[in-house]
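Contributing new records

If you add data, match the layout below exactly. Sequence lines come first and carry their own label; structure lines follow with theirs. Keep one chain per record. Anything else will be rejected by the validation script.
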Amino acid sequence: MSPQETSERLPSRDEVWNLLCQYTEKEALRKHALSVEAAMRHYARLWGEDEELWGLTGLIHDFDYERWPDAENHPYRGNEILTAQGYPEILRTAIMGHAPYTGVPRETRLAKALYACDELAGFVVAVALIKPSRKVADVDLSSVKKRLKEKAFARGVHREDVYAGAEEIGLPLDEHIQNVIQALQTAAEPLGL
């Protein structure tokens, strides 16, 4: 069911961006939001889904993380705010499901894609930042796979979520990595990469 079929209103991208910026001051977290948005929009186009819904879900998924980074609060506090502001349930449920510890099942394609894109988008950005050019244009599949095997690299990225995410969306890991690289290359300018 699309948000247009419910009484819930999908906010504009400007509204979502403003909410994100209200709660997220760190540039790195804002860029993470933009990278996940790009990956989600890419998959929405690829699979014929609602690109705006998918992109906005990616953009806002971690907006509460800077204020409430602990598992007791993130993404719960954000969900309360989004509920109060009338964000669609499908978006809110996907956001709750992107954090495995919430126990919220990922039943929709949107929820599975958000989970699959979140950690991997952050990882691809990390790989880009160690390139001499610091450009995502210079990131390729082999460099991402090589770095995934290095436990000391980008320690904050949960590798098990990267692997499980690809499985949940039904794609081989290589194809999923390539899709996310392509999505971020397309969005390189706003990402500063």
